Amino acid sequence: MERTRRSLLAGAASVGVVGAAGCLGGGGGGTTLDISGVDLDTGEYDCDLAEPSDPNLDHRPTLGDPESDVVVRAFEDFTCGHCASYTLDHFPAIREEYVESGEIRYEHWDFPIPVNETWAVPVASAARGVGARNGSEAFFEFASAAYESQGSYSGEAIGAAAEAAGADPCAAMSDARFAAYGEASADDRSEGTSMGVEGTPTIFVNGEPVDTYEAATVGAAIDEAL
Fold it and tell me: Are 130 and 146 in contact (CB under 8 A)?
């Protein structure tokens, strides 16, 4: 029997939620964001990392119907445990029900609080680079693989996430090493601050914040907007 939307989203809501308040901080915009990159060991990849010359800072990771009247924006920090929970446990249900059906336009926005000052911007930068070169599907594949390595980020972890997304691991590590997309992350963070983001993940449906990041709650907000 085909699952109903209600049962699918209710099931997702019961998976892995340890509170839904998220990772708090950054709402006032007072924290200076470090976009200088990070020293990293390429490990088994043995890459000669060079600073990217022309990153596409305008790339916006997007899924679904680009012309949809319903736009969902997700502000995330790659070092926030709640963002990992949202992406791995809740977003798949949202994607199946609303993105793959073409009912919404879904956008990723960076909001490095940062929970971890060393890795927040570099991992986000690597993800954006993967998306800019290989497309948004690759971005979201990288993001899921990266979140699975959260807490043990390294050059090799970034390379492995890039490989999982079908992307060049050395290019991804270069983006992380030099924070090639750090300016884009900073711009996203400024936009989030202007919209009242105070923690991650924060989900907006047509500009209105959703109370929690649980799939059932996000789904209800989307249903109301459709």
Answer: no
What is the 8-class DSSP label of residue 90?
A: I
Range of the domain at 175: 70-225
Higher pLDDT, 136 or 28: 136
**Within a domain: 98:** yes
Total domains in the chain come to: 1
Phi-psi region of 112 (alpha: psi -120 to 50; beta: other; left: phi over 0): beta
Burial of 30 (0-12, 13-18, 19+ CB in 10 A): exposed
Domain assignment present for 127: yes
Domain membership of residue 37 (yes or no) is no
**Is 152 part of any domain?**
yes
Three-state DSSP state, 106: strand
Provide the CATH number for the domain around residue 211: 3.40.30.10
Helical segments of the chain, H only: 5-13, 81-85, 91-94, 120-134, 136-148, 155-164, 169-177, 182-194, 215-225
Residues in the chain: 226
Q: Is 74 exposed, middle or buried (0-12, 13-18, 19+ CB in 10 A)?
A: buried
Q: How many Å separate Cα 165 from the centre of its chain?
A: 14
DSSP-assigned letter for residue 19:
-
Encode pLDDT of 11-46 as tens digits.
444 433 333 468 987 554 445 788 888 999 998 998
